[in-house]
Write a structure and sequence with these properties.
single chain, 317 residues, mainly alpha
Length: 317
């Protein structure tokens, strides 16, 4: 049974791990580019690439400004457009204060107790039980709740769920997770481009021997880098969930309320939305049939820690 280590210790530990994860994303991009040139130099028959290390380094330096510019432009567009993209993907709408004073009162009381700015409140008209926080600054921070979670949880449980999402905002989790999603999107796009070039180039008969080698190398590296980026992203997400649980317990002084809420949410949380958005949810356990494939493998690619373990830790608070 895992022991609770304390909110401040957990915050410090998870923040250190988050910094490491986020540094790993851009480093992985640059490493993938260098390894591509290194393997290409070692496989090619070009006499000018007799020394793979120096050849790879020279080519890497030449393309570094272009790669950096493309990544930076992609990142900035996705970063500042994420709020509208998430709202469109979930179908969320503004939660009416007049008809939902209970929710507003719970959220406002928590924010006042923490000296936080009140986030926007949105609702998804779904009977599923789920919630998430989003946004990149005080103007865009939002807590989104489903109709199901508002109606099925009592005041203490709903307060604990809102506190969990406020912790994600207070600790800048939503910003960190959005950054990780953007970088994974870059690798995913790279894999798609290489795959299309590989198959369409092959079918069109336009590839020579060296071009075919380069395409194979690029495809293998892109796939490996994409898988590693997923592991980084999911590892970051899992760590932040534990921290938000602990923070919510500390904020409400009622850890058992969150444990009770998670029990009700478990098995009743599924929403038909984009997988990247699901990573933001308070719970994103796979469907029961998909869990039977390989527990050891899927645990590496899980966005959330097991809900039973989260409940177990909260009950030791």
């Amino acid at each position: 049974m895992a022991a609770y280590t304390g909110i401040h210790t957990q915050i410090a530990r998870n923040n250190r791990l988050s910094v490491i994860y986020l540094m790993a994303f851009p480093l992985l991009i640059f490493a993938a580019v260098w390894v591509f040139f290194f393997l290409l130099a070692g496989w090619t028959e070009d006499p000018q690439m007799a020394d793979p290390v120096s050849s790879a380094t020279e080519l890497f330096i030449n393309v570094l400004p272009g790669v950096t510019a493309v990544v930076l432009i992609w990142f900035l567009i996705a970063y500042f457009a994420n709020t509208s993209m998430i709202k469109a993907a979930t179908g969320a709408k503004t939660l009416s204060r007049k008809e939902n004073m209970r929710v507003y009162n719970l959220c406002e009381n928590l924010c006042m107790s923490q000296g936080m700015t009140m986030p926007k409140l949105n609702i998804i008209e779904s009977p599923a039980l789920n919630a998430f926080a989003s946004g990149i600054n005080k103007k865009s921070y939002t807590v989104t709740l489903t109709r199901g979670i508002i109606e099925k949880l009592n005041d203490e449980e709903l307060e604990a769920v809102i506190a969990h999402e406020l912790m994600h905002i207070r600790n800048h989790d939503v910003r960190l997770l959005i950054i990780s999603i953007i970088f994974v999107g870059i690798f995913s796009f790279a894999v798609q481009i290489v795959l299309r070039s590989f198959f369409y180039g092959s079918l069109g008969g336009r590839r020579n021997k060296d071009a075919g080698k380069a395409m194979i190398i690029a495809l293998v590296i892109a796939l490996i880098a994409y898988c590693l980026s997923l592991i980084f992203k999911f590892g970051l997400s899992r760590k932040r969930e534990y921290m938000a649980d602990a923070g919510a317990a500390d904020m409400t002084r009622n850890p058992r309320a969150l444990a009770s809420a998670l029990r009700k949410i478990s098995g009743n949380h599924q929403l038909d939305v984009n997988d990247d958005v699901k990573q933001l949810f308070i719970e994103n356990e796979p469907q029961k049939d998909s869990k039977e494939f390989s527990l050891n493998l899927t645990s590496w690619f899980a966005t959330h820690p097991p809900i039973d373990k989260r409940i177990q830790i909260l009950e030791q608070f």
